[in-house]
Amino acid sequence: MTETHDVIVVGARCAGSATAMLLARQGLDVLVLDRAGYGSDTVSTHALMRGGVLQLQRWGVLDRIVAAGTPPVRRALFHYPGEATARITIRPAAGVDALYAPRRTVLDPALADAAAEAGADLRFGTGVTGVLRDDSGRVTGVVAQDRDGRRLEAIAPLTIGADGMRSTVASAVGAPVLRRARGAGGAFLYGHWDELPVDGYEWVYAPYASAGMIPTNDGRTTVFVGTTPDRMKEARATAPADRVVDDLLRSASPSVADRVADARRPVRLRGFAGEPGFLRQVWGPGWALVGDAGGFEDPLSTHGMTDALRDAELLARAVRQIHAGSLPELAALAAYQQSRDRMAGRLFGVVDAIGSYAWTMDGLRPLLREAASAMSEQVEELERLDPLPVVTGR
Q: Has residue 391 got a pLDDT over 90?
């Protein structure tokens, strides 16, 4: 069976669903395919930075996140060894008066629902196995298979890969890596603790160790610990995961470790072994990439979901120019690449340095200030964008 659409989006998590929503709101026929199930969980830091909250608010999706009981975050605390905790109030700016850290079981379905309401056709449990090409090599669509083994061919002028850092689409089109992090990236363990009160986002930094406590849905707090991949591998080879969490937390901050020890720990911990960050080329003839498929930075930035929503906005604007006839495909997608690179590049470099753990405590503070400044630049640029139009009565 062969279907025809205006756009095919591969991946229905926050990057893919946001992109599909924005394109469907412009009146395009959008097909979204995802091998996972609707509302399923995935590895994530959960924390949205100001740029991500700004996007959700502008799109009319933030109310769904709030209605799901996601607690507002109005303060960030920084814990350093042997020093008083630094407290920063998150002041209202860019129309945002609080940050949020929704579980992916909340954020992804909220965006998927908004995409479906806009007219996108979302099909879960359907995995893309490859792309279709014409005689010139241009991507013309995808080949997919559902859980019952049924084969699907779908064609469209544009196929968008929003299928994560190990993107099938990026691999199929041979998207080159334009920039790669110098470090190996951090390795992490995390879980969701009950009965652990926190005062906003709480970040912990110590030599060769990091941690965080992030308030999320259902009264739970996400607790993570991080270190270099080599140190994490060594620790996990000699102790169970919960002991590794306890030991890393205590090495980073005994007071934070005591608080976590008094809370009710989760039954399950999740891990991330570490991966060098990268920025890929995000477009070619008939294809584009968004979210982690196009670029990944160390999770210690807690900026991944915010990056995904940023790039969904940038790509949707480029596709609008193509369909409106105001720019040819080559020029519009090249401009998307330039915007992504400009907005992501500065933060990517500083996150690479922070995620290496190759810093002294005195050297860390300038890096954190640089990261905050780079995030603020992105917010300012997003704030200057005019809202995308919504087409009704398609």
A: no
